[in-house]
Specification:
It is built from 14 helices and no strands. The chain is mostly helical and about 300 residues long. Helix 3 packs across helix 4 and helix 3 crosses helix 7.
Length: about 300
């Protein structure tokens, strides 16, 4: 068996050891779960340090989006979508969980340079802590949507509520995989965080958050034939967003004549949503594995590059 040359070996870590395998890394993260929890709490405290309103700011952000988009689309553009604000929030909160968490994860290592240089711990904990802190924010912001559903007496689709946990998990996995990859690359190439802003802006408008999925489905089916809507699922956030909107916004609450613009969402079986989430799951696994490979390859020199 031929021995590997130094160039073929993964770079040494700060403690002089070779990067462990995927499952060994997972065990290390679990062993440092207390540190992960402390970093999540620190992220939340630092974010609102010396802030008079504190966690209230987490509610003002989606409220501002709600007001602006409702005025633009419902008042100015005369969008016929009933209770448009609820449709927006049911997709926006989920997409923000992904995008804001990914942005924070990307800058997590560069923002914690002194900690990385002085103390050894699994470096993956930093981007994971950033995503974990944003998950807490997501749950706070969900109260706005729940209050809105209660005020309008609009019930979710209770029979499909079970779709939300896997959809939420996939959102976190996609963000974690990309976060691991980009956080390491951002140490070497600081332009990554700036390109990410442009990429997420593009990703947002290519995902049916401010408009219903039916518009995408009809455009693709009209151009390429029936069933072409599946092409849209190559954007792994679309199956997740449509699941959230189908369950929480639940277009079946409205009169039949107002349900026409949601036909492609309403008249789909549970299996259709499960299959689409399966596509997102494939992307999530690819991103997590790719993130692990890139991170393990680059982490050996993180301390020096910082």
């Amino acid at each position: 068996m031929t021995a590997l040359t130094n160039a073929e070996l993964p770079p040494l870590l700060e403690n002089g050891t070779r990067p462990p395998g995927f499952f060994a890394r997972a065990r290390d993260i679990w062993a440092y779960r207390d540190l992960l929890g402390n970093l999540v709490r620190r992220e939340l405290k630092v974010k609102y340090k010396n802030s008079v309103l504190g966690f209230v700011w987490t509610l003002l952000n989606p409220l501002l989006y709600l007001v602006i988009f409702t005025i633009v689309f419902s008042v100015i553009l005369k969008n016929p979508t009933p209770r448009y604000g609820l449709l927006l929030l049911s997709g926006l909160l989920c997409f923000n969980l992904f995008s804001v968490g990914l942005t924070a994860a990307t800058t997590s290592i560069t923002a914690n340079g002194p900690l990385v240089q002085k103390v050894w711990f699994p470096r993956e904990i930093l981007p994971l802590a950033a995503i974990g802190a944003n998950l807490i924010t997501f749950f706070f912001q969900m109260t706005i949507l729940l209050v809105g559903l209660a005020l309008f007496r609009q019930a979710p689709e209770w029979s499909m509520l079970w779709l939300l946990p896997p959809a939420l998990l996939l959102t976190l996995l996609i963000g974690a995989g990309l976060g691991l990859m980009l956080s390491a690359l951002n140490v070497y190439f600081r332009d990554v965080q700036h390109f990410l802003e442009l990429g997420l802006l593009t990703w947002f408008w290519l995902t049916p958050v401010v408009y219903p999925f039916s518009l995408v489905a009809r455009a693709l089916n009209g151009k390429f034939g029936d069933g072409a809507e599946r092409l849209a699922m190559l954007n792994p956030m679309i199956p997740i967003i449509t699941a959230f909107q189908r369950v929480l916004y639940n277009p079946t609450n409205f009169p039949v004549d107002q349900q026409e613009q949601f036909t492609e969402m309403i008249h789909r079986s549970n299996l259709w949503y499960v299959e689409n989430l399966g596509i997102s799951a494939i992307f999530a696994l690819i991103f997590v594995w790719g993130g692990y490979k890139v991170f393990s390859r680059l982490e050996g020199n993180l301390g020096e590059e910082l």
